[in-house]
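If your schedule permits, I should be very grateful for your opinion on a structural question. I would ask you to consider whether the tokens describe a fold that such a sequence might reasonably adopt. Thank you for your consideration; the sequence and its tokens are set out here.
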Amino acid sequence: MEYIENRTYDEIKVSDRAELSRVLTKHDILQFAVMSGDVNPAHLDEEYAKNTIFQEIIAHGMWGGSLISTVMATQLPGPGTIYLEQSLKFTKPVYVGDTVNIIVTVKEKRPKNRVVLDCLCSNQNGDAVISGEALVIALAEKVRRERIVLPEIELKNGAGTNSITVMHQAS
């Protein structure tokens, strides 16, 4: 059994950091489009994307932003974190097959359990693709929860219909 556990406000120190790496797949882009409703052809239409400055399909910018949220919600500060603010600067596109490395670093601790975090997403070449800063509330009490096993999602595109099949994994 795997668990996720927060770091309480008192446990957190300036310069603490947490990391996550993900490889962007076409499936990720499609799932994000389904969940967000963002059907910008720059993310979904290969023919259209060929004629853009990027010349191929790119990730939704907020896909990377959601990975920053994942690090904060599962690692630093962890479960129970309350998101207050986020600034993001998108500096380079993320392409299918790119590895995105997300690093969240504690920049400052403030009164009332507020924590300022530097957020950086870089690609496999070390180039920053997203940078920013977040303000969160870290809990004063410890939270330790069993990591929830997410279902697999299968996307289907049928004649005139689009469907999503969710296949639950055994716990």
Remarks:
- The chain has a mean pLDDT of 92.
- The two ends are 9 Å apart (CA to CA).
- Strands lie at 3-5, 17-23, 82-90, 99-110, 114-122, 128-137, 144-146, 152-158, 161-167.
- The longest helix spans residues 61-74.
